[in-house]
């Protein structure tokens, strides 16, 4: 084990000692209470299976017969979740084969950031994670289940499902993904047309035609944003069946993996020989494994929020310092768009998760001695699933990269460090994704241009006012202000200015997309402007230095002068498009470095 990985793990264990012990005590009490159906009145239990087939009714009369919950984020507006429509039928048939039943216990909302980028609905996006966690709890609180399957893929859905399921961590829980869509046009071509449109050199029809050729079928978007980072992390934490992350939808192998999930869930239920509750799978070591995987693959910055909140749901406390320290010793061994030119399908073909996990294990950068839904030890996840005569089997994954432009071994990485860095200084604490930023852009010092809304920046760009060196400060975008929307719609405009040779950077208390790219961006600045943060006192022309090499976010104004200024006041917001329903979440939200969560105390 690498000494830094060991040291970070140990301090997480120590930091989490009380909260983790309390969590495990609660899970053990829930286990010993047993499934609630054995304690329900006959009328209550009859309600739970009144609509089932006669065969299932007979099974479910037996209080010892296994019953598996299905919690799904299916909707047919999201390409990633549309394939989940078929999954309950597959799961129920497979459960019957092992003498069990499966019930669709509940659905959770699933919104698409790709649809809501730059729109008011994006202000609901982050808190949809917390809604999903609560909806998962509602589904499982009927207490009629021996195990649970979580069907979800995208940005806030998997973190929310994880947080909700961990409240029932005495149950075995397996995540069942849908897989990525097949590849469309090249990412370089997609980015080219977006840049042309940002400059007014392509029409909206030309842009739409390009986007439709990219996002063209069922499955997850194929760039390496938050959705596919989710799938990577589910493998790293042992909550997937091995190799399940990146198998495309509606294929025999995908269906075989879906059918295998309920069978394995029955095998690891309480009362069997391999009882493996979720509370045993998600612990300090598996969280470190997920964090290392995120860094080694250049994953989504959104997980500096989500992984903190997910860990907290299991009683594990992690900090941005943990991210930063592990990033400094975890080499970047994958380049997937936007960090490289190829997509997740090419990543999977080149060796994918099996190769990544083998490399990290062999280098001592992750923990092997963890519980997983597939059995003890992370080594199981350096295997890949295949169909042999129609039967699902696992074989060792390739020990060498099949495309070194996409995947490299630890001893010959793309970069010696991972893709994230903690920034601190006079403007607060922030994170930056460095894996897609050219070295020449890692340090930017330029005058501030301050915007209280992303639309103001875009309007200034259209007016031709941004052809200069500047640091864009986009404030009042934090969780308490407006729900912390992603500001990905700023990327094309800022990218064009960067390509013109200007020194450009972004500083914001909001989020960027999980596909954060080449523009240096200090994001998730905390404390946020509306909560007394220094961003509220920045003025146009203040010199700001973003130094990702040394982890600094500074303003060339004395703290005395800065704090003497009257803070700017956020515009009134929070109404329309359902935003008025989320006011209590904005008020309850913790800071970004505590996960920006409304469900837990910030401490």
Automatic annotation (TrEMBL):
Top-level EC class as recorded in UniProt: lyase
EC number: 4.2.1.12
A GO BP entry: D-gluconate metabolic process
Cofactor(s) this protein requires: [4Fe-4S] cluster
Residue positions binding [4Fe-4S] cluster: 154, 221
UniProt domain Dihydroxy-acid/6-phosphogluconate dehydratase N-terminal: residue ranges: 66-379
Protein name from the UniProt record: Phosphogluconate dehydratase
Organism: Phenylobacterium hankyongense
């Amino acid at each position: 084990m690498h000494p830094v990985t060991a040291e970070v793990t140990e301090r997480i264990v120590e930091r989490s000692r009380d909260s983790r012990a309390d969590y495990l005590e609660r899970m053990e009490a829930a286990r010993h209470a047993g499934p609630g159906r054995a304690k329900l009145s006959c009328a209550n239990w009859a309600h739970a299976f009144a609509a089932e087939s006669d065969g299932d009714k007979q099974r479910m009369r037996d209080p010892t017969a296994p019953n598996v919950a299905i919690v799904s984020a299916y909707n047919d507006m999201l390409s990633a979740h549309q394939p989940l429509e078929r999954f309950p039928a597959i799961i129920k048939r497979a459960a019957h084969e092992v003498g069990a039943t499966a019930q669709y216990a509940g659905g959770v909302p699933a919104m698409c950031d790709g649809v809501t980028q730059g729109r008011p609905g994006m202000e609901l996006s982050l808190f949809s994670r917390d809604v999903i966690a609560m909806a998962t709890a509602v589904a499982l609180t009927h207490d009629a289940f021996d195990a649970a399957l979580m069907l979800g893929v995208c940005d806030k859905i998997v973190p929310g499902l994880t947080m909700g399921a961990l409240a029932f961590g005495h149950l075995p829980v397996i995540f069942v993904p849908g897989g990525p869509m097949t590849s469309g046009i090249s990412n370089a071509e997609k980015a080219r047309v977006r840049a042309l449109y940002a400059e007014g050199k392509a029409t909206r029809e030309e842009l739409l035609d390009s986007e439709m050729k990219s996002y063209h079928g069922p499955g997850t978007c194929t760039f390496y944003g938050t959705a596919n980072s989710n799938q990577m992390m589910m493998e790293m934490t042992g909550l997937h069946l091995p190799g399940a992350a990146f198998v495309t939808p509606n294929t025999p192998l995908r269906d075989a993996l879906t059918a295998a999930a309920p069978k394995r869930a029955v095998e690891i239920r309480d009362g069997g020989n391999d009882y493996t509750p979720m509370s045993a799978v998600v612990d300090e070591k598996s969280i470190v494994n997920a964090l290392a995987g995120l860094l080694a693959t250049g994953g989504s910055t959104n997980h500096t929020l989500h992984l903190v909140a997910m860990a907290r749901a299991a009683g594990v406390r992690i900090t941005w310092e943990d991210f930063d320290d592990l990033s400094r010793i975890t080499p970047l061994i994958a380049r997937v768009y936007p960090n490289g030119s190829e997509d997740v399908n090419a990543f999977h073909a080149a060796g994918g998760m099996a190769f990544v996990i083998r490399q990290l294990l062999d280098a001592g950068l992750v923990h092997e001695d963890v519980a997983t839904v597939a059995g003890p030890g992370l080594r199981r996840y350096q295997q890949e699933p295949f169909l042999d005569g129609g039967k699902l089997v696992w074989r060792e994954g390739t020990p060498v990269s099949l495309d070194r432009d996409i995947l490299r071994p630890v001893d010959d990485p793309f970069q010696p460090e991972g893709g994230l860095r903690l920034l601190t200084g006079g403007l607060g604490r922030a994170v930056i994704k460095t894996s897609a930023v050219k070295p020449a852009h890692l340090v930017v010092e330029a005058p501030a241009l301050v915007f209280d809304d992303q639309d103001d920046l875009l309007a200034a760009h259209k007016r031709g006012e941004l052809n200069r060196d500047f640091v864009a400060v986009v404030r009042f975008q934090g969780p308490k202000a407006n729900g912390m929307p992603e500001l990905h719609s700023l990327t094309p405009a800022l990218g064009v200015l960067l390509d013109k040779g200007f020194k450009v950077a972004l500083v914001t208390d909001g989020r960027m997309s999980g596909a954060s790219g080449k523009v240096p961006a200090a994001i998730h600045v905390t404390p946020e402007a509306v909560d007394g943060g220094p961003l509220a006192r920045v003025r146009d022309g203040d010199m700001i230095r973003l130094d990702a090499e040394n982890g600094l976010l500074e303003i060339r104004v004395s703290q005395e002068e800065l704090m003497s200024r009257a803070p700017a006041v956020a515009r009134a917001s929070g109404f329309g498009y359902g935003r008025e329903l989320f006011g209590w979440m904005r008020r309850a939200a913790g800071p970004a470095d505590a996960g920006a969560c409304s469900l837990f105390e910030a401490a």
